[in-house]
Amino acid sequence: MKSGGLHLLFISSVFMIISCEEPDKTNQVVEKELANTLETADLGGRTGYISDYFYDFASNINVDFYRFSSSYFTFDYDQYLNLLQDTPPNLNVRSFPEYLVEITPTQHEYAERTLIDSLTITDVVESNSILILSTQFKNVESLVWDTDAEPEAQRYKPNNTDWIFDTTTVTYTDTMDVIAYRAVVDTPMIDEGVLFIDQAEWVDTTYEYVADERLEFSHVFSFQRKQLNGDSLIFRVNTDCNDNGSWDSAETADIGNGIWDPAEPFYDLDGDNVKDASEPFEDRNCNEVWDAAEAYTDANSNGQYDAGEDFEDSGNGIIDGAEEYTDLDGDEQPGANELFIFNPIPNNLLVTWADPQNPQVIDIIETGDSLVTRWGIIYYDIIEEIVFEDHKTVTAADKDSLVTLFTNRVIGHIVGGEGQDDYFIVKTEWEDDNTEGKDYDYLLFKQFEHIYKLVKPSFFKPYGYYWSEGQMASGFWFKNEFEDEVVYYTSNGLLREGERVETMYYDSTNVAIYRVERSFQVDVEDVTVPAVKVRGFINNDGAVECYANAAWSADTIDDCPGADTTFIDAFKITNILTQTMIGTDVEYGEKSISWLVKDYGIVKDELHIRWTERPDAKEEIWLGISRWELGRFSASSSGGGQFAKLLKRTHIVKINELQNIPELEDPFQIKRTAGLQRVELPR
Where along the chain do its domains lie? Predict the structure, then answer.
C-alpha cells in the first residue's frame, strides 16, 4: 500500500446478479415448525423495556465483572474466593457514547470490467493434486478397572494407542481458460448493502467456473483395528433381577427365583476374601447391595451346594417390575441374552463363570479375552481385532475457466442493516491468561426494534474438532461481509417473559454448506452475583471487615472483594446457535445465557459450547467455557446519542481508525464473539 493517506469509498448498491455461481446465503423451506412469539399480543408474563434492562448507549458505562474461565467454570464466587484466597480475574466493559461508528452509503457505481489481454490465456493445462485422508481412530489395547477412583466412580478405563490414520495424494491434470479483468468493485460481492473500499490498494480475486459433474477419486485404506466388540458388555446394566437366566413379568411379592444363588462375585482389592464396602461387585439381582450365598443344607458334606439340596430361597428385598430388555434381534420378545439396558458409563464389572464354582472378576481386559455368563452364554473377543477397510471418496471441481478480477481492497461490507446506521462502541478488556498481557474486543451495537451487533459471520472448517486457541485460529474462518446480528429480540421494545424466536437457514459458502439454527428464549428468575455496593464496614476495633470474608486483609472498604447480592426477577435470556456442516453432519454449538437487571444491564453471563456428541450420547453435552459475574457498576450521563450528534458533540469515527482515538487506543480486530463474550476454546 502507498504511504499516502487512506482514500475510502462508501458504495451502496442493490444488484441482481445472474451468473453460474451459487448465491452466498439461501433460505430453505424448513420441515419443522419454527417458534416465533413476537406477533403474539400478550404472553402473560413479566415485561420490561429493553432500554431499561440493557445498557443505555447514551451513557458512559463502566462495569467490572469477575471472569471465570473454563478451568473454574463450576466454581461459585465464594468457592473461588475461599479456596484460592483471591478474587477471580477482572474484566472491564466500557461504552464510548462520544464516538459513533457511522455507516453512510453514497450512490456510485464502479462495477465496469476491463479485459487485461496480457494476462488472458486459453487452453491452460493445470496439474493438481488432492489429499485423501482416512478415518482417524485409536486402537484399544486393553481395558483396566480404575481402582484409584471413588467406589461410585470406578469404571473401565481404556488403554489406547495414539491416533492412527493414513493419507494418500492423487495427482491429476485439468484444462481451462485463464481470463483477467480489472474493476473498482467486485460486483458479485455487493448484492446489496454498503461496501467500504481503499482506492490506494489493489487486490485480486479469482473465480472458478466449473462443470456440473465433479471429478471423483476413491481409495481404500486398510488397517488392523482393535476395538470394543459390538456386544459392549462394559456398558450394560443387568436387568435379570430374578437371576434365573430368563425374562420375568412384574412381581406382586418379593419372592425367590427357585434357584440356589451363590455369593455375588466381587473384586477383592485387599485379598482377604471378605467383601468390603469399597469393593465393587457384580450386582446380579438389581438391589444395589452385595448379597452373600443363600444358606443351604450340605447333605453330602462336600463343602459346596449340589443340585437337590435344600436351601433358603430369598428374594432381593424389592418387589420388581417387569424386567426390561434390549431387543437385539427385533422380534419384540425378550431373549436370555437380551436382559440388559445400556448405560453410557462403562462401569459394568465383568465376571466370567467359566468355572461355575469359582467365578472370576475380569479387572484387566485384553485383546481376544472372552467371557462366560452364569447361564452359559459365551461372549468371544471382548476387545476384537479386525481388518478395517476404510473406503474414502473425495471430489474435485472440473474447472472450465479461471477468471481473475483485480479490484480495490475491501475494508468492510454491511449487508441488510436495519434502521439507523450509527453504531455505538463497547470495549471489553481483560488480562489474557495465556500471554500475561491484555486482550480486548470492540463490540458495535445499535438499537432499532431489536438490539443488533455488527459481526463478520464465521464458521468452522473440516474436520471440526478444535479445542485450543491455536487450533481455533485455523479451524474457524470469517466471511468478508459485515452483518447485523440480532442479540436481543423485543416486541415493540419490550422484553417479555416466555418470548421465543427460532430461525433456520442454509448458508452456501466456498468452504461448505452450513445449516444455521438459532433460538432465543426469555425467562425470569432471581440471580445472585458479588455486586453489593458496600463491601464491608468498620468494626468496633476500627479495622475494615469485609462482608465476603471477615478475615480478608483490607486497608479500606474499597479493598474488600465483592460480596453477594440477589436481584429479584431478572430477565434470563438464552441464545443458542447450532451450525451443521452439510455432508459431514458435524455440529458446533454455542449457548449464551445472560441475566439482565433493570438499570444494571448484564449482571451475569455464561458461554457454553458443544461439538457433535458420540452416537450413543443420550443428550447434548455442553461445556462451560466462560462466566462473568458483576462486581461493580457505574453509569453516568454523557453528550452522546442522536441529540448530541445534532449539536456536533458526538464524534463520527471510521472502523479502521479506532486506534487513533486516545480513549480507545487499540485497532479494531475481527474475533468470534457470542453476545459480549469472546469465544475462546480451552487449551
Answer: 32-104+421-678
